[in-house]
């Protein structure tokens, strides 16, 4: 299966690809949202068009994969027992046309060229306990949310299913957004609370170790009192197409500082956080 690679597409072509993908996914939503157990509990087979049932009935998984993907194994010949309905053939052709390429085209992000285990675009406190892949994800996603926040004027973010709160901490303490984190797993909530306190202690040590640097940065920004700590991005110019937040200062809380039982991340702290530009 050749697939589509977004790297060589223009902005308009990418937009059209997104529109096509959204339209197809919406049309087949009932199939995509189905769970295996629902095949038995909700009789999902009976929800398929009758013509599809006739064409697919009796095929084992390897045969079904061969016919749908069009990729026979060595020595195997593709044989259709009957003529497939046009709607099923249309789904097969559409899926092949819109599928992303499986050909490896990975290039190491510039932030991991110096050290494959540490992102150069995150300061040490925000890298702790976070795997390289997750470091890259929280930085890119956090900066995207910050950019959208600046464009829309929305400064409050809800992180649903926040897990251990890595993204929430970066958005709140690193980028100055007001973040509310929701997590239903109590084990992850306790872990997130522990990491919250650990990060705050680390940032407090950084401030005490370099008080003059923090004060100098704040004066340069034209702000009043010294910042509590620097942003989640290291000093120096950002890389290509990379942005970096300013200095984060904690002000007086805007509301109650209690933590919800289903919350993770520094929600109490972020309520008074603001970004110094």
From TrEMBL:
Biased composition (Low complexity): 220-232, 241-258
SUPFAM superfamilies reported for this sequence: S-adenosyl-L-methionine-dependent methyltransferases
Methyltransferase domain location: 133-217
Database matches in InterPro entries: Methyltranfer_dom, METTL25, SAM-dependent_MTases_sf
Transmembrane segments: none
Domain of life: Eukaryota
Signal sequence range: none
Pfam families reported for this sequence: Methyltransf_32
Stretches for region Disordered: 217-270
Protein name: Methyltransferase like 25B
Lineage: Eukaryota, Metazoa, Chordata, Craniata, Vertebrata
């Amino acid at each position: 299966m050749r697939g589509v690679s977004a790297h060589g597409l223009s902005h308009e072509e990418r937009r059209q690809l997104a529109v096509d993908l959204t339209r197809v996914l919406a049309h087949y939503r009932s199939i995509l949202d189905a769970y295996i157990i629902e095949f038995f509990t909700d009789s999902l087979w009976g929800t398929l068009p009758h013509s599809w049932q006739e064409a697919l009935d009796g095929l084992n998984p390897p045969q079904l994969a061969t016919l749908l993907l069009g990729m026979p194994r060595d020595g195997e010949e593709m044989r259709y027992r009957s003529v497939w309905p046009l709607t099923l053939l249309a789904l097969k052709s559409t899926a092949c046309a819109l599928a992303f390429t499986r050909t490896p085209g990975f290039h190491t992000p510039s932030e991991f060229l110096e050290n494959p285990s540490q992102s150069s675009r995150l300061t040490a406190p925000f890298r702790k306990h976070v795997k390289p892949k997750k470091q890259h994800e929280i930085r890119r996603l956090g900066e995207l949310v910050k950019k959208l926040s600046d464009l829309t004027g929305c400064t409050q973010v809800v992180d649903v299913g926040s897990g251990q709160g890595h993204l929430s901490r970066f958005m709140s303490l690193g980028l100055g957004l007001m973040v509310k984190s929701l997590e239903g797993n109590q084990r992850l909530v306790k872990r997130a609370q522990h990491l919250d306190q650990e990060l705050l202690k680390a940032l407090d040590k950084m401030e005490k170790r370099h008080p003059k640097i923090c004060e100098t940065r704040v004066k340069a920004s034209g702000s009043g009192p010294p910042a509590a700590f620097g942003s989640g991005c290291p000093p120096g110019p950002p890389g290509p197409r990379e942005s970096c937040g300013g200095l984060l200062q904690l002000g007086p809380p805007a509301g109650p500082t209690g933590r919800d039982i289903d919350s993770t991340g520094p929600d109490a702290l972020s309520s008074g956080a603001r970004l110094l530009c």
